[in-house]
Design brief:
The chain is an alpha/beta fold. It has 4 helices and 14 strands.
């Protein structure tokens, strides 16, 4: 089983349009929040027709319309701020915030913990737990009041093998390349 993991789209439909075809071979998708606008729900659910598991981020401001649109798509599963799943015998926890997800991962109750928020691509192992931050589809990092443009990134996890593969959408391009 392969699961696509995306986060922090922030309305960047242009990069999402590149990521979605690149994950069509996946069985499911996890989205770790920060879609931003409700119209991103339509793009996700129509662009990836298998199950999508979605948690809210801190920039998902119109929760009413995001939730209302969610009801239109049977493949879209909205969980609020935290989600627990079991896939291929592995226990997953999904949350938007790195500051919440890392302690969950360090606690060792899950096999995989997925998160986003800080826009930093990360694959870390805490004992038996794999902590995964796919980075951002937006393709920018913010710190100290400055924006730094970066490659848009996402992950594909082979659940049975426990192998995450990172991908980057190159800046000013529609090309996708493997990373890490």
């Amino acid at each position: 089983m392969r699961i696509a993991i995306l986060s922090d789209i922030h309305d960047n439909l242009w990069k999402l349009d590149v990521a979605l075809p690149a994950v069509q071979h996946c069985d499911e998708m996890i989205c770790c929040g920060d879609l931003c606008s409700p119209f991103v729900i339509d793009e996700l659910a129509q662009g990836f027709t298998r199950d999508i598991h979605l948690v809210f981020g801190n920039n998902d401001a119109d929760l009413f319309r995001i939730t209302a649109k969610n009801a239109r798509y049977p493949n879209l599963h909205l969980y609020g701020e935290i989600c627990e799943l079991e896939r291929a015998g592995k226990r997953f926890a999904i949350n938007h915030f790195d500051t919440i997800a890392r302690p969950i991962a360090q606690g060792g109750s899950y096999d995989v913990v997925c998160f986003g928020h800080n826009h930093d691509f990360e694959i870390t192992r805490y004992g038996k737990t794999l902590a995964l931050n796919p980075g951002s589809i937006l393709g920018a990092r913010f710190g100290g009041g400055q924006r730094q443009d970066t490659d848009s990134t996402f992950l594909v996890l082979d659940v049975e093998q426990g192998h995450p593969q990172g991908y980057a959408i190159l800046q000013n391009s529609h090309a996708v390349r493997e990373i890490v």
